[in-house]
Design a protein that fits this description.
Layout lengths: L54 H14 L2 H11 L6 E2 L1 H7 L15 H15 L4 H9 L73 H10 L9 H9 L3 H4 L10 H19 L8 H15 L4 E2 L1
Antiparallel strand pairs: 1-2
Length: 307
């Protein structure tokens, strides 16, 4: 199946670099979605210094994450989980598994994951009604968080959620809680601690190892030949890099991108607004919207997938 997707109309600059601690550079794009003034706790979105009940949990998460996400660890996880030998199940079955989990890295929401998935998808559906592949991408983008489930090895949260970043090259200072990278062995390894590390300019993000977590895992599931997904390239790019805030918020690591990455980044900027700002305590009527999303699942995925 060939999917033709219309390029988003962006009347703003989509590549911005913001220094650490500076003003947010979130893109305010067209599509009818009004960005709320505050998150579910009455605070600014993605404010990691704001005093709230989530602050200590989130900072401790990033401390452990930054210490242990090494090039060797990521290579090992991709090899293990890339075999897709954990189970076979459908997309909606996977969504229901996520009801059991709350993301420890998220300063903006403490509700079960199914709420976030539906909030994101429904917000996109209103803003971009003709891009059904984007609605489905919103619904499934976080399904890799099933790595937290016992049947998937019950990985710790630091190996599943949180902002992602390349491993195998220097960590950019715009990464959240950057100071904790100093305890990562790769930080002191001359093979990995230069601007390019083991990569080259314009090599393409597909050739870059990202910190291991739900983004990369769901990408591996979606691109596997056995699973026969027909999502377009932009949807797969969003799934793999939606937590790559150093890139799509701060413009870091762009020296590793190729032309296809830069085109797909336009859609990631569109998606990110809905992923981030749709988080709220407003519940979605699951049974009301389920038939629509089941029709999209059936359109772009087989009944059962290997995980």
């Amino acid at each position: 199946m060939t999917i033709t997707i219309e390029q988003p109309q962006l009347d703003v600059v989509v590549e911005r670099k913001v220094t650490a601690g500076g003003d947010p550079a979130e893109l305010v794009l067209d599509g009818g979605f009004v960005v709320p003034d505050a998150n579910a706790f009455g605070k600014t979105f993605r404010d990691y210094e704001a005093d709230s009940e989530r602050k200590e949990t989130v900072e401790d998460f990033y401390r452990v994450n930054h210490i242990h996400q090494t090039h060797e660890f990521v290579s090992r996880m991709r090899a293990e989980y890339g075999r897709l030998d954990k189970t076979e199940m459908g997309i909606w079955e996977c969504i229901e598994l996520l009801n059991e989990f709350v993301d420890d890295s998220d300063p903006d929401l403490d509700m079960p994951q199914i709420e976030h998935l539906l909030q994101t998808a429904e917000a996109i559906r209103k803003g971009y009604p003709d891009q059904d592949w984007l609605h489905l991408t919103g619904l499934i983008h976080d399904l890799g968080k099933v790595l937290l489930h016992p049947s998937f090895g019950e990985l710790p949260q630091w190996a599943v959620v949180g902002d992602t970043f390349p491993v195998g090259c220097a960590y950019d200072e715009c990464n959240v809680h950057f100071k904790y990278f100093e305890e990562n062995p790769d930080y002191h390894n001359p093979k990995f601690n230069t601007k390019f590390g083991v990569y080259s300019e314009g090599c393409g993000l597909d050739n870059v190892l990202m910190s291991w977590g739900h983004d990369d895992y769901m990408y591996l599931v979606s691109v596997a030949k056995e699973n026969k997904s027909t999502l377009p390239s932009a949807g797969l790019f969003i799934i793999r890099y939606h937590s790559f805030y150093p890139l799509h918020k701060h413009g870091a690591y762009m020296h590793l991108m190729n032309d296809e990455d830069k085109e797909n980044l336009k859609w990631l900027h569109v998606f990110n607004k809905y992923d981030l700002y749709s988080k709220s305590n407003v519940r979605i009527d699951v049974e009301k919207v389920k038939p629509y999303y089941m029709s999209l699942i059936n359109k772009y995925f087989p009944e059962k997938l290997r995980w």
